[in-house]
């Protein structure tokens, strides 16, 4: 199958996400304009204009009505998915690094960077009946991060907890009723965590780290279940919703890209078996490191966004589903 090449960004992709049905694919990049695409044919549906800086993160809610983005212009914005208008813009003290709707879509969380004398903080907001007055309201909860800044974040089961991945490789679970840390993973990863993605049923999640590994964790106890080793930093990892497969994407730092050739196989998507931890496939394509990966909710295709500004949507051949792992 030839991949769909989605060309809509001028600068490197920072995150991509499917909505729940998988008919829409959202992408954001350092060029200030998040895009939304039809995932079936790669047609661009529209852009969300309004940010003044690089957009670091985005998430779409359960009903595909609201989109939340966080950017380097020190705002988190909530958009109307259908009309592309800003519903609310929330000012922050430093750039917004992660943002996620809860599973129910009633709440959203976002975290800010440790920069310009500001410490990293995790914020919770209520987005049930959101309008422009949200920018003046206090967040329902704010947790300052004293040790290391948050680099990725997930909502735990039943919207009771938030799982955070940190710059020093730590993972923590926070109880949002108490506003306290309830579980700490310790030092499973030795370097910063670039990305975390839940499995379909939410019982486990995969992390992608700068220490060249991706790991599978239990999402309640933070016990490390599996480790997938590579030779270079992993920028993103995703779990297939239908197969026991994990896809990893990475490459070197963007600084070192020009000194090596693409032939060295640095920018491949690498498929590992979830349980046996063995790599069984690689897919080439990007001209730079892969920054974000996402499986389609039906598990029959996946998308990758790279430092080259392209989003590639790759549909799997029938042989992929017939492949029985020995």
From TrEMBL:
Give the main localization category. cytoplasm
* Gene Ontology terms: biological process: formation of cytoplasmic translation initiation complex
One GO term describing the cellular component: eukaryotic translation initiation factor 3 complex, eIF3m
Does Cytoplasm count among this protein's keywords?
yes
Under PROSITE patterns, the record lists:
WD_REPEATS_1 (PS00678), WD_REPEATS_2 (PS50082), WD_REPEATS_REGION (PS50294)
Q: Which GO terms describe its molecular function?
A: RNA binding; translation initiation factor activity
Gene3D superfamilies in the cross-refs: YVTN repeat-like/Quinoprotein amine dehydrogenase (2.130.10.10)
What InterPro entries does the database record attribute to this sequence?
A: eIF3i, WD40/YVTN_repeat-like_dom_sf, WD40_repeat_CS, WD40_repeat_dom_sf, WD40_rpt
Task performed by this protein: Component of the eukaryotic translation initiation factor 3 (eIF-3) complex, which is involved in protein synthesis of a specialized repertoire of mRNAs and, together with other initiation factors, stimulates binding of mRNA and methionyl-tRNAi to the 40S ribosome. The eIF-3 complex specifically targets and initiates translation of a subset of mRNAs involved in cell proliferation.
Q: Where in the cell is it found?
A: Cytoplasm
Under Pfam families, the record lists: EIF3I
> Which named protein is this?
Eukaryotic translation initiation factor 3 subunit I
Q: Give residue ranges of the WD repeats.
A: 6-47, 48-89, 143-184, 186-227, 283-313
Source taxon at top rank: Eukaryota
Task: State whether it acts alone or in a complex, and with which partners, per the record.
Answer: Component of the eukaryotic translation initiation factor 3 (eIF-3) complex. The eIF-3 complex interacts with pix.
Keywords (A to Z) from UniProt: Cytoplasm, Initiation factor, Protein biosynthesis, Repeat, WD repeat
């Amino acid at each position: 199958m030839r991949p769909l090449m989605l060309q809509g960004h001028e600068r490197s992709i920072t995150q991509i996400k499917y909505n729940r049905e998988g008919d829409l694919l959202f992408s954001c990049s350092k060029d200030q304009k998040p895009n939304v695409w039809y995932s079936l044919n790669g047609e661009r549906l529209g852009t969300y204009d309004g940010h003044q800086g690089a957009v670091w993160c985005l998430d779409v809610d359960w009903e595909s009505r609201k989109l939340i983005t966080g950017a380097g212009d020190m705002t988190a914005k909530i958009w109307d998915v259908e009309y592309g208008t800003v519903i609310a813009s929330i000012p922050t003290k430093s750039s917004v690094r992660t943002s996620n709707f809860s599973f129910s879509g009633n709440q959203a969380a976002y975290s800010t960077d440790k920069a310009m004398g500001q410490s990293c903080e995790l914020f919770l907001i209520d987005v049930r009946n959101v309008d422009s007055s949200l920018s003046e309201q206090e967040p329902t909860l704010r947790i300052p991060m004293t040790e290391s800044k948050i680099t990725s974040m997930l909502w735990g089961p039943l919207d009771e907890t938030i799982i955070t991945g940190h710059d020093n490789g730590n993972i923590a679970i926070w109880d949002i009723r108490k506003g306290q840390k309830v579980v700490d993973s310790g030092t499973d990863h030795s370097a910063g965590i670039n990305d975390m993605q839940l499995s379909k049923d939410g019982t486990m999640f995969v992390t992608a780290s700068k220490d060249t590994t991706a790991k599978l964790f239990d999402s309640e106890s933070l016990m490390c279940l599996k480790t997938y080793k590579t030779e270079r930093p992993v920028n993103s990892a995703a779990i297939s919703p239908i197969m026991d497969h994990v896809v990893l994407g990475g490459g070197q730092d963007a600084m070192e890209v020009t000194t090596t050739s693409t032939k060295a196989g640095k920018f491949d998507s690498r498929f590992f078996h979830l349980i046996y931890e063995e790599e069984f496939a690689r897919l080439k394509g990007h001209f730079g490191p892969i920054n974000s990966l996402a499986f389609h909710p039906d598990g029959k295709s996946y998308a990758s966004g790279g430092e080259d500004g392209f989003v590639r949507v790759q549909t799997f051949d029938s042989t992929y589903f017939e492949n029985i792992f020995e």
